[in-house]
Amino acid sequence: MNKKSILLTAFLFGLFFMATAQQKFTVGSLGYMISPSNSYTNPELKSNIGYFTGVLTVPIELNEKTAILTGLRGNMWTVKYDSEQLWPENYYSIGLTLGLNHKFSDKNSLLLVLLPKLNSDFKDLNSNAFQLGFISTYSHRVNDDFLWKAGLYYNSEFFGPFFVPIFGLDWRLNEKVSIIGDLPIYAKVNYGFNENISAGLGYIALVSSFRLSGDDFQDAYTSRFAIEPYLYTDIKVAKNIYLNGKVGYTMGRSYPVYGKDDKLDWQLMFMKFGDDREQLNSEIDDGLFIEFTLSYKVDI
Predict the structure, then answer these.
(1) For residues 288 and 36, is the Cβ–Cβ distance under 8 A?
(2) Could you give the 3-state DSSP secondary structure of residue 16?
(3) How many domains does the chain have?
(4) Domain range holding 175?
(5) 142: left (phi over 0), alpha (psi -120 to 50) or beta
(6) Which of 45, 71, 162, 186 could tie 57 with a disulfide, CB 3.0–4.6 Å?
(7) Looking at residue 19, what is its pLDDT?
(8) Which of the four pLDDT bands, split at 50, 70 and 90, describes residue 3?
(9) CATH classification of the domain holding 13
(10) What is the mean pLDDT of residues 59-88?
C-alpha cells in the first residue's frame, strides 16, 4: 500500500468522525461536472475534463415487506487536450439497476442489487465492454434518528476484480444536522437551513474503468480514480425539483491507460494486489471541479 493510498484512506475514515438523515428518495437526476485546465506529468499537455451523468430509479412494491428496484444509469466522461491527442476523447457508460429490498421487520432489511453495464469509448462496441457488479447491504435501524448498515460492493473492472466492504449510516444529530454515507464510497455532513435550502461538506470516491475499442487500441483500457471532497448547497426550485451545486478539489486523481491483458490480481478498496502493470500514458495532476445536478425527489 503506497503513501498516496494511505493518505486517501486516512482522509475517508477521518471524515466519518465529523459530524440530515435521508428523508427523500431521488427518482431521477441529471448532472454536469467541469474540471478546467488540468496539467499532466508531460508539460506539453493540458486538459479540460467534463462529466455528464443521468440516473433514473423506479422502486416497485410487491408487498409490505418486499420491493423491486429498477433503473437506468448513464454517463459520459470527456477528456479534451489542448494539443493533439492519441487516446479517445469521450468515454461512455450505460447500465441497469436490478435490485430487491426485503424488510424482515421495522428495524432490519436486506438489499441486493445487480449492476450490469457497458463501459467503453463506444467506437467499436462489443462484449469486451461488459462489466457486472453487485451491492449487498444489511440495514438495522436503532431508533428514529440512527440507522447503520454493512455490506459489500463488487465489480468486474477491466483491471481485475474490485471489492469494497461497506459501512453505512443515516444519523440525524438534531433537527438541522445529520450525516449520511456508505463508507468508504461516499459521505456527507448536511445542515438544513429550512425546508428549501441545505448545505454541507462531503466526498465521493470514484473508481471505474473503460474499454478502448478499435484496431488502434486493441481493447486496451483506462481507469478513472479520484477522491473528491467538496462543499455543496441544495436548493428546492419547484415542487419535488432540487438544484445541487458543488465545488471541490480532486485528491489522488489518476487516469492511466493499460494494455488489455495487463491487469492486477485484485483490488480491495485502494489496496492493489499483484500490480506490476506498465502505464502507457502521461499521468494527470489533481485539480478543481465544479458540478451542478438537477434532481426529482419524493418524500419517503
Answers:
(1) yes
(2) helix
(3) 1
(4) 3-299
(5) alpha
(6) 71
(7) 36
(8) very low
(9) 2.40.230
(10) 86
